[in-house]
């Protein structure tokens, strides 16, 4: 029993050590999260009230199955407004835990109706990021200002576990179907061809796939499987640098999916950004005037609410309505997050080299 207790504490100690962040990083990330959530990630689900109930087909185990059909305009507008005001209050550093949990619930409710057509998607990490960080009041768990934490571990550690679990489950399915040592079948091309010919995913570097050799395309299957099965190995090293390396690889993975398959998973970029913020960028963000930040999020938030009422769409979807322009925006966003991650790694190795020269 003593051995099991030691093993349990060792495992948790390693995972927490690899993922925990300081208060300055939490504060900077909270501002970035709120600003870009209001600017880019406000839900675009007002259209649901126009869908006939004949198409209502929610998963059997979903809470949405309790409804007899799609909600009306005012129901959807209310939950969109709750999300916007919750984000504003988080940005203002007010009632972060309470409104964060409310924001999470609102996002889940809206997502439940979005996936009531017999199909689901992969945006769950974004609302989980809101929930995990709200449970510890958007601060380190050992902060003197984190009172009555609802978690025994840091919120970012729980989020990292969710990331690892999501990737691992995806990798298990791919390992079963893709690792076949058969060059005549490619799991990657199984995604590529239907998207390219049936769904119009022909933008960015999609045409490059036709010129790649078979052996390289086959290797993409194995790389994807190995990568998606690996996050817990990096977490269990107990090293922040190793976990950051995996997150940067994850950013490159999604950047490549966006460029080649036109599948962006854009909601994930704010989730990964938490773990790769460079110290210099953290300082820069924290030095921004609180007044400027407050005016900015109020301005963006009220514009978004006005657009939702007038046009039933948030800003990003009105400005970039066609799929081609949106995929280019998603590609630029992933590229920026990937470059920020590289910046963070360069900063770490540079500081390590400087410290070694002074020893």
Q: What composes the largest sheet? A: none
Uncertain segments of ≥5 residues (pLDDT<50)? none
Q: Per the principal axes of the C-alpha atoms, what is the gross shape?
A: globular
Quote the distance from N terminus to C terminus. Answer: 42 Å
Number of helices: 15
Question: How many β-strand stretches?
Answer: 0
Strand content: under 5%
- Tell me the radius of gyration: 21 Å
Specify the oligomeric state. single chain
Fraction of residues in helix: 55-70%
Order of helix and strand elements from N to C terminus: HHHHHHHHHHHHHHH
Structure classification? mainly alpha
Mean pLDDT: 90
What structural keywords apply?
15 helices
Model description:
The chain has 15 helices and no strands. By secondary structure, the protein is mainly α. Helices cover 67% and strands 0% of the residues.
Secondary structure: elements and pairs:
Layout lengths: L1 H18 L3 H18 L32 H19 L4 H19 L10 H11 L19 H24 L8 H12 L15 H16 L1 H5 L4 H22 L6 H6 L5 H8 L3 H22 L3 H5 L3 H35 L2
Helix pairs in contact: 2-3, 2-12, 2-13, 3-4, 3-13, 4-5, 5-6, 6-8, 10-15
């Amino acid at each position: 029993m003593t051995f099991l207790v030691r093993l349990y504490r060792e495992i948790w100690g390693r995972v927490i050590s690899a993922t925990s962040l300081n208060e300055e990083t939490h504060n900077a990330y909270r501002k970035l999260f709120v600003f870009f959530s209001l600017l880019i990630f406000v839900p675009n689900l007002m259209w649901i009230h126009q869908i006939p109930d004949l198409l209502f087909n929610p998963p059997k185990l979903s809470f949405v199955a309790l409804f007899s059909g799609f909600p009306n305009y005012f129901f959807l507008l209310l939950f969109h407004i709750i999300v916007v005001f919750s984000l504003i209050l988080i940005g203002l550093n007010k009632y972060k835990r309470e409104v964060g949990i409310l924001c999470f619930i609102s996002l889940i409710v809206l997502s439940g109706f979005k996936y009531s057509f017999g199909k689901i998607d992969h945006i769950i990490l974004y609302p989980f990021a809101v929930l995990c960080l709200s449970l510890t009041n958007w601060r380190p768990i050992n902060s003197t200002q984190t009172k009555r934490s609802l978690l025994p571990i840091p919120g970012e550690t729980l989020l990292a576990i969710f990331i690892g679990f999501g990737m691992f489950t995806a990798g298990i399915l791919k390992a079963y179907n893709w690792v076949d040592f058969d060059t005549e079948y490619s799991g990657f091309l199984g995604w590529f061809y239907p998207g390219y010919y049936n769904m119009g995913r022909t933008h960015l570097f999609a045409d490059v796939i036709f010129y790649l050799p078979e052996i390289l395309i086959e290797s993409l299957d194995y790389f994807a499987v190995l990568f998606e099965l690996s996050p817990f190995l990096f977490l269990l090293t107990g090293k922040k640098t190793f976990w950051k390396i995996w997150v940067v690889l994850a950013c490159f993975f999604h950047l490549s999916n966006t460029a080649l398959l036109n599948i962006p998973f854009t909601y994930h970029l704010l989730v990964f950004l938490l773990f790769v913020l460079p110290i210099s960028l953290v300082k820069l963000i924290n030095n921004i005037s609180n007044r400027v930040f407050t005016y900015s999020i109020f301005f963006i938030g009220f514009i978004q609410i006005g657009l939702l009422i007038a046009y039933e769409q948030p800003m990003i979807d009105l400005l970039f309505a066609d799929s081609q322009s949106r995929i280019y925006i998603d590609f630029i966003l992933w590229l920026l997050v990937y470059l920020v991650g590289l910046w963070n790694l360069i900063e770490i190795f540079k500081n390590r080299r400087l410290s070694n020269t002074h020893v």
